[in-house]
């Protein structure tokens, strides 16, 4: 009798926790490569397309800066123009252009900073990036916030 009750309790426990696992949202589609840029004094910027290409969204991580955004991964809107690509997010309820790229070069703009920071494409940093790990880091960061 005790064994039967234990088995029923185990089965009930499995059934009650199964919906929690099933409710986990699927991972969004991502680009097949991380594109990275670097600048002076250790500045690094990583980008990765997220969601469908038509959504014009990217994950952006900035490192090597003395700023609240250091190593924080943010989802940003991507706008492609005839002369550049612009990555933006909302800051204090207003759109803020963070990154402007023209070919292999660009500039980083940070809220509260008066100067833009020049940067260029970094092949070694790009090759070291893993899209799936980048997405996992973003999802874990978002869950913790």
What order do the helices and strands come in, and which of them pair?
Elements: H1 2-22, E1 35-39, E2 44-50, E3 57-63, E4 73-80, E5 85-91, E6 94-102, E7 105-108, E8 117-121, H2 123-128, H3 131-144
Antiparallel strand pairs: 1-2, 1-8, 2-3, 3-4, 4-5, 5-6, 6-7, 7-8
Biggest sheet statistics: 8 strands, antiparallel, barrel
Question: Got a strand count?
Answer: 8
The CA-CA distance between the termini, in Å, is 46 Å
- Class based on secondary structure composition and strand pairing: alpha+beta
Oligomer: single chain
How are the strands of the largest sheet arranged?
A: 1-2-3-4-5-6-7-8
Helix coverage percent: 25-40%
Tell me the fraction of residues in β-strands, as a range: 35-45%
Radius of gyration: 21 Å
The backbone outline, from C-alpha atoms, is globular
Extract low-pLDDT stretches.
Answer: 17-23
The helix/strand order is HEEEEEEEEHH
Number of helices: 3
Please state the average pLDDT score. Answer: 88
Written description of the protein model:
Residues 17-23 have low confidence and may be disordered. This protein has an eight-stranded antiparallel β-barrel. Helix content is 28%, strand content 36%. It has 145 residues and is α+β, with helices and mostly antiparallel strands. It has three helices and eight strands.
């Amino acid at each position: 009798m005790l064994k039967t009750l234990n088995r029923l309790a185990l089965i009930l426990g499995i059934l009650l926790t199964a919906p929690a696992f099933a409710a986990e949202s699927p991972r969004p589609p991502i680009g097949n490569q991380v594109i990275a840029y670097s600048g002076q004094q250790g500045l690094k910027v990583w980008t990765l397309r997220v969601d469908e290409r038509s959504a014009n969204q990217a994950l952006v991580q900035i490192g090597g800066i003395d700023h609240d955004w250091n190593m924080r991964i943010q989802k940003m809107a991507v706008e492609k123009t005839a002369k550049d690509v612009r990555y933006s997010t909302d800051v204090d309820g207003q759109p803020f252009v963070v990154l402007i790229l023209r070919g292999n070069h660009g500039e980083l703009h940070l809220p509260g900073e008066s100067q833009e920071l020049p940067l260029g494409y970094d092949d070694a940093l790009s090759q070291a990036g893993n899209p799936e790990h980048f997405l996992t880091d973003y999802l874990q960061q978002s869950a913790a916030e």
